[in-house]
Fold each of these.
Amino acid sequence: MPADSEAVAEQVFAALADPTRRSILAELAARGPATATDLAARLPITRQAIAKHLGLLSDAGLVAAEPGERRRVRYRLDSAPMRVAQQFLAALARDWDGPLAALRAHLDGEE
């Protein structure tokens, strides 16, 4: 996997490490694009904290800002970075399949 993909995956995993950011992503996935104010009304967190988390999610490429009515910014999910992270995990899993099967066979006494 190219280094760029690893950097994207690293940003995605760092963003997903925080439960508040996962809640924001889940809310956007369930209800579609929303403003920071909309999200603050639905989640137990202040609008200012939501805005901070949206900035970090945007930096990771997981959300994109789009202009809304009356200069309000709406955030929508962007799944491209998530797909890169999924590909990273799939490649990692493939690398582990052989050694894990060999370990299982060894432990089962099937060498």
Note: Residues 10 and 85 are 8 Å apart (CA to CA).
Amino acid sequence: MIKKVLIANRGEIAVRILRACKDLGVQTVAIHSTADADAMHVRLADESVCVGPPHPRESYLNVPSVISAACVSGADAIHPGFGFLSENATFSHMVEEHGLIFIGPKADHIAMMGDKIMAKKTFARLGLPTVPGSEGAVTNINKAIKMADEIGYPVLVKAAGGGGGRGMKVAHSRFEFTEAYETARREAGIAFGNDRVYLEKYLGQPRHIEFQIMADQFGNAVHLGERDCSLQRRNQKVWEEARSLVLTPEFRDNFGKKIAEATAQFGYLGVGTLEFLYENEKLYFIEMNTRIQVEHPITEVITGIDIVREQILIAGGSKLSVSQNDVSFRGHAIECRINAENSDTFIPSAGTITNYHCPGGPGIRVDSSLYDGCKVPPYYDSLIAKLIVHANDREQCLARMRRALGEYVIEGIDTLIPLHMKLANNPDIIAGNFDIHFLERLNRED
């Protein structure tokens, strides 16, 4: 059993992990930069350690400082949350080398799934359908053009080691392909230190569907259903729903079991998410995220399963607390990501929260680290809160979301609350008529 966890993150996810630890009776250590000395996760933790100045490279991404903080504080495990070091295989390996437990999958699996080409090959061998495309990295422009012609335009050029929408370019014709290819390689090299790219058929109007899985060291694996994450801006998720409107219960059950079986065969440990594109009643695997997801709360509220708690218990050597037969789905849930950004320009906004009021009432959950007078620094990701709404059906869920957004007060900085209110009242959103390009079209119309 894990006794003390160092939380190698900040913001709302650090508070979320801290709460799960406290529910388990596990002590917590918060790390922080000098910019986060008064942050909520620091205030709530049993102990805290400053790991450096504001810039992430010198604090939250400073591996020696993070591991030293764990050793000095007597922690026996490290939870990386999401972002920062959560999908860093080298960090995971170093944590274990220092006799600590990494609350996440094996380092080899992090590395394997971090390479999208290898991830596709792995799950294709395990029987999951993938988007048509190149079998591996394409390093020669002439071969790339020939491959693109064979796949058929439009073609998507994607970074092999990428994420977050960077290193992805679309070519609608051979005329556009060379520039898309070179730009994607250049962006990938700068962002990830790896300029390898591969090609995929660009799907015209797909949904982005992902399945949550959990697996233990005893060969047990379950799926917790799917989430629809189609509402995205620049390939960054903004609004997520569980369950999807496009999958039937029978399809969900059959495909979910197939995913769980593939995960067990793979030997995966911990929680993870398999992501797919859905078009013409077919799902195509695109990647696996080997960490807790930002949008995990909507799965928690429709299943009643504390995913972070399970993650900690699995890392401590426990069996899954549920079997597939124990998993059931109740109602509908929506999560709105509340970013510190201008709703019209999406320019990040930093500053001091001068007035804060959190919405409440039936079916409302807010994951946040905000409080009156707290500072939102300019150095980190703009996600500052998540508004999660649960109801018996989607219509009631949208009504509750509109109520909650109307109650939510965050003053002193710009946020995406006005955008979410606009989406919650949009006829196409209400009708469920959207795909991954919806927000792009909406912005052009505005």
Note: The chain has three domains: 4-103, 132-201, 207-445.
Amino acid sequence: MKTNVQIKTPSQQEKTLDINRIRKQFPILDQKVHGMPLAYLDNAATTQKPASVIESLTHYYTRDNANVHRGVHALSERATADYENTRKKLCQFVNAASTREIIFTRGTTEAINLVASSWGQQNIDEGDEILISHMEHHSNIVPWQMLCERTGAVLKIIPMNEQGELQLECLDDLLSQKTRLVGVVHLSNALGTINPVEIIIKKAHAVGAKVLVDGAQALAHLNVDVQQMDVDFYVTSAHKMYGPTGIGFLYAKESILEDMPPYQGGGDMIRMVTFEKTTYNELPYKFEAGTPNIADVIGFGAAIDFIRQTDIDAMAAHEQSLLAYATGRAEDFEGMRLIGTAVDKATVLSFELQGVHPHDLGTILDRQGVAIRAGHHCAMPVMQFFGVPATARASFAVYNTRSEIDQMFDALAEAKKVFGC
């Protein structure tokens, strides 16, 4: 089925990557599943981890296991140095103005909930408006719905078209002096669409609204400069970036964080406690209550090192080449319908195959060693818009190859035979 999708042409830089050398850094890829070579194409759900990340976790637990910030002994000092070094790496990676603007969270979901609970508590009142897009992950829908229920604010939606692109021509009419916050995904996990977030930020700021960008899918694939974007909040998860699960961060402008009340109480977020009054710690620790996820923060730092050493521009070019190849094969594959054909997209190929439920596809492909995702991808409004219960989704990372895409399409051909379609 031919579509209007036009994948960006890969740059020459992608030719400099030695994919075999990169793959050797990921021990999990060297295995067979059901007797077939593993083709891991579920990277939008979670990426695999290079040996350097795994080794950083092992090193912490075998050499430096101690709590951070409080201890004066050698183990605590080493752990603290590595923990805070990750904050510095993230600050540089997104070009934040200060490490005070980097708050460690359990991931994207907690970061959004932190903003909704803390900033929202102070700044959203009855009759105010929160604007999100039709293609948001549930994590960037439900916290705002909950905030609206608590405050009497109104949730409004930026529509999208049949290609899976936001209808920005509607944005001016949706924005008003009542708009307090715009929440938008940078790179859609369900469609692969790359949204023009800088345009949205500029328009939102013109009416006095703050902007939160969900970067869970974007930061492993796109160069992000939060100061250039002038974004107020940017959130992501490490496990989408070759790092550990259960850790992520919130970037927010320091002036905004200073005015926000703490999200949770206890541990590192205090400066002084008496029964009469508690004085809160300075940034960023005001928002990091309790013993943090030390090992995985350190592992996150190792993942950032991997991305920077590999070169994110070269990685993105390789992934665009894979997406272009997979899209071409999909357009020639009888009975396949692509879901999400935006001109500006990356890393995600969502589709349905006529006569076969996506969950059945996922099961059959697994027997051929191919790991894809099948379901609503925590984006039910997207599925409702396209009139499907679910999609099959292949998503690419730097270690993937064209031969793995061929393996997937061979398995899809087998699925068609099984179902007689």
Note: DSSP finds 14 helices and 17 strands in the chain.
